[in-house]
Amino acid sequence: MKESYFNVPGIRWHTLRVGPSTWTFRVRMQLGQVVEDWDAQTYPLAESARVQIVRARAVRGRPGFVELHFTRCNPLAVVTERPRPLSPACFVVGADEFGQRWEIDFTLLPHWLIAGKTGSGKSVLLRNLLVGIARTDATLVLIDLKFGVEAEIFRHRASGDRVQPVRRPGLLHRLNELVESRAGLFRELGVTSIEAAAELAWCSTGCSSSSTRSPS
Q1: What residue spans define the domains of the chain?
Q2: Which of 66, 77, 148, 189 has a C-alpha 20 to 30 A away from that of 39?
Q3: What is the 3-state secondary structure (H, E, C) of 22-38?
Q4: What is the spatial distance between Cα 4 and Cα 167, in angstroms, rounded to a whole number?
Q5: Between 194-212 and 170-189, two packed helices, what is the crossing angle to 10 degrees?
């Protein structure tokens, strides 16, 4: 794409990145403009650039700027990101509508509510997240209100496999015991998160390994 397509006097375009299916630009808005002004012009921009869609988004921490995402082709037509753990609490669950890696990081947002209408992808997102978690040593407890329909494929990995609320009343009691045990460990270590506890454990192991290593 050439900048001459959008040769608007007084507006400077900065190319941020060019992906397999998208272009991303950052633009300094003129005095008095807001992101909604650019959002209203995304359809003409898409027609001019001959792309599928253009989206305008505010730039966090940069007032007066707007980011424009040009989608040339469907970024989800080909699988580019597969579910996997990046750390004990951060997981890749797929790609977003811009073809960028989509991560769920429990250190940034520890509680999630996944909602949507039938067919919107709730189960797919949940499965991708579970695939990533299954590769770690995390304790995994699944409460499946569909009587095992959704959780069955993860039964061999889950600590409490699947549960019917009436037939397995003891699972929540054991889950509460696990939470209390974890809280006691956190108090002992003086931390408030799993990430901090894991970092302390890693540091302790690394320090002890380095202290016993013979000098070269």
Answers
A1: 3-71, 169-205
A2: 77
A3: EEEEEEECCCCCCHHHH
A4: 67
A5: 50
With 0-12 CB in 10 A as exposed, 13-18 as middle and 19+ as buried, what is 90?
middle
What's the CA gap between 136 and 205, in Å, rounded?
18
Q: Is 93 exposed, middle or buried (0-12, 13-18, 19+ CB in 10 A)?
A: buried
The single residue listed with the structure tokens 């390994």 is 209
Band of the pLDDT at 81, cuts 50, 70, 90? Answer: confident
CA distance 68 to 192: 39
Residues 6+ apart with CB under 8 A from 22: 69, 70, 71, 72, 75, 98, 99
Q: Which residue has the tokens 């003086």?
A: 190
Q: Which range is least confidently modeled, 41-45, 135-139, 206-210?
A: 206-210
CATH 3.40.50.620 fits 3-71, yes or no: no
Neighbours of 181 (CB within 10 A): 10
pLDDT tens digits for 93-130? 998 876 778 999 998 888 899 888 888 888 889 889 99
Q: Which amino acid would we find at residue 212?
A: T
Half-sphere exposure in the Cβ direction for 193 (13 Å, CA) = 12
Number of Cβ within 10 Å of residue 168's Cβ equals: 14
Segment holding 179, helix H or strand E: helix 170-189
Determine contact, residues 35/59, Cβ cutoff 8 Å.
no
Burial (Cβ within 10 Å: 0-12, 13-18, ≥19) of residue 152: middle
